[in-house]
Design goal:
By secondary structure, this protein is mostly helical. It has 13 helices and 9 strands.
Length: about 425
Amino acid sequence: MQQAHARPRRGGKRLALVLAAAAVLGVPLAVQAAPNYPFASHRQAYVAGTLSPSVGRAAADQSTASFYRTWKQRYLVPGCKAGEYRVKASTSDAYVVSEGQGYGMLITVMMAGNDPDAQALFDGLHRYNRAHPSNQNPALLAWAQDVNCKNVSGADSATDGDLDIAYALLLADLQWGSGGSINYLAEARKVIAAIRSSNVNANTKLVTLGDWVSSSEPNYYNATRSSDWMLGHFRGFASKLGDSYWTGVLDAHQNLIAKMQGSYAPNTGLLPDFIVNTNTTAKPAPANFLEADTDGWYSWNAGRVPWRIGIDAAVSGDSRSRNAARKLSQWIKVKAGNNANNVRSGYKLDGTVTENYNSTFFTAPFAVAATVDTDQAWLDKLWTYLASGGTSDYYGDSVKLLSMLAVSNNWLKP
């Protein structure tokens, strides 16, 4: 049974991520440029040996496109100004969060060629973002707004949203070029420079929790969130910008993944939501460090890790990513008894179940990790779970769709 869940957010604030009513996009959309890498063209090859669902590419593409239409209808809605779009994350105060805006931009740029409105939707998401700058670094996005597009819970940034936004802008340059009304590459450069300035620890080269963190608060400055370790993004920043700084950032995160798996999860490969003391001896965060009593466990942040590491392994071939993803995949297959419905919604790092029910959010990312392992039957079971499952909530459905894009060989790199 797939269940929705109220996910803890920054500072212990919980957002009620509940099922949203279908919303109809009401703003006329302009004529779009032809995409260079249309959905289902599979023009970017994955690394040799990467597994794909046995149903075949056409069927996997069809399932992914079908779920995209459902996701779009439920969560992609107009902003408060003409030409703006936003992803509806909740019906509570934080109606929009920067994480969701990043997801929306990744999804729409990868669905170009299937959805004729993809570029207009992408541009509308970007316009919304630029209308809501962080009060710490205006090139970044304020992390949450209410239904009336007013900032709530502070106007600073959260690292994950800005990383996805920057990467999506690089993909937009790849997909449509930067000669139109928005210079995607120039916008990406601005966001990437801001992330480097405000969201990376200058000493460790690890991403921080947001631009609200400073070196004057060492407990937070030397902490990091595992779900922000977007290896492929760092790799893309380095290659597209020709900037070796980001290779150093990539290596710092790869080293920390290896250390955390080796020291705290040698049998599972699980990473905790938050890691502290990164300037000395990194370790899982204590309970209630930032969000919840599960901050030091594999919970509602770290559940995205198998997707983030797995897709980097699939498109880059980095053996470090592949080894980390395989450890996760092989462990969960055994833990779940080879049954996707038995994946649970949270674990301690030793594999002890903390929330004893199944959810789309926790199951979907393991399908991405399975693509870089060797068990075709396990991947097929996970894919069947995704393709035949229904909807859950904004968070679960967004991660499910992004995982389906990855598993169906529709992920892009700049």
